[in-house]
Amino acid sequence: MAFDLSPRSPSADRAYQMLWDCRFCGTKKLLGVEHRHCPNCGAAQDPQWRYFPSDEDKKEVADPDYVYAGVDRICPFCGQPNSRNANFCKECGGDLSGAQDAAVRAAIEKGSAADTGVAADVVLEKHQAEMARIQGKTGQSAAMPKWLPIALILTLVVCVGLVAAFLFLRNSTYDVQVQVSDVSWERVVAIGQVTTLTGSGWRDSVPPGAYNQSCSPRQREYQVPEQYECGTTRIDRGDGTFIEQPRYCTRMRTESRTDSWCSYSYDQIMHVRDARAGGGPDQPLQWPNLSLGFRETEMNREQKLIVRFTGLGDKANQTYEYVVPNEEESTWRQFRPGQTYSVKFNRLEQAQWDSLSLTN
Ligand SMILES: [Zn+2]
Ligand SMILES: [Zn+2]
User: Fold this and answer.
1) How far is the CA of 34 from the centre of ligand 1 (A)?
2) How many angstroms separate the alpha carbon of residue 39 from the centre of ligand 2?
3) Are residues 354 and 279 in the same domain?
4) In the structure, what pLDDT confidence band is assigned to residue 5 with cuts at 50, 70 and 90?
5) Could you tell me the distance, in angstroms and rounded to a whole number, from the CA of residue 31 to the centre of ligand 1?
6) Closest-lying ligand to the alpha carbon of 24?
7) How remote is the CA of residue 24 from the centroid of ligand 1, in Å?
8) What is the pLDDT of residues 179-192, one digit of tens each?
9) Which ligand is nearest to the CA of 76?
10) Domain residues for 202?
11) Within a domain: residue 9?
12) Is the pTM of this model over 0.90?
């Protein structure tokens, strides 16, 4: 999470003081800006000891000249936190050019479980972080048992094997002798019946082709997202101060506007029957006579030019239907009953009709 530290709202302009407890003499609730040393024993403030105060203990930075300069830097010689503006330690005069940034507490939600207003136990936190790190390591190896990689590899090998077997069976072919037993054509007209249905809905959901529409104004509800202030985030700025920024959440608000509510009729066509015509190559190709009944209508026309084969040899008594592609009539008319053909079958027992070739 990134926080914008530049002032945006009046409350973001207000800097409050972090608190710290002296670990040497036990003095509590010292101020992050005003008490750079413990007023009781003189120990230097350690930024790791800083914490967010409760509301009663919250104190604004009183100094009118205070300007936020950035996260403190820790003197590498004496451990004193110094303002980011300083080049030399105000405690020991040491050079701060290689100094490290002071520790910063994680931003928290005001009023959350983390926002206790008391000093965090830094030693305990470090111990817990270390334990979590160690457990994370062992947890990782526990989550992935030793047999799992082997099982994954085996699964992969089986999958690759199945695909290879499928491709082999599909692509490996052998020749089959077949004899033309029948040549025929078939023409089918799908017939549907019109049913009138009624419906109602908002104008923008009326189906195209609807008729007998009657619409009337009606209030229609819709949802709009809205932002609202749902809390405060406290951000440690690392120089003994913190700021509070409003946190925004999104919720949906119901609004309504006038729209049109419509009732309408529409037609639906349901498939009820097929009309068929068919014959041999000597009968002329023609569509069936349609005698359409009440509210019946034509939905679709289809023509099939069919050659039926009987297997020879190993495939004796097996029959196969071949539909000539693209309804090519001239191709279809070349087939005669009694002719024998050779056709390739693959090991999945699928005929490869594009390999048909006449053998007598
Ligand atoms: Zn002290
Ligand atoms: Zn120093």
Assistant:
1) 14
2) 18
3) yes
4) low
5) 13
6) 1
7) 5
8) 999 999 999 999 99
9) 2
10) 192-240+248-266
11) no
12) no
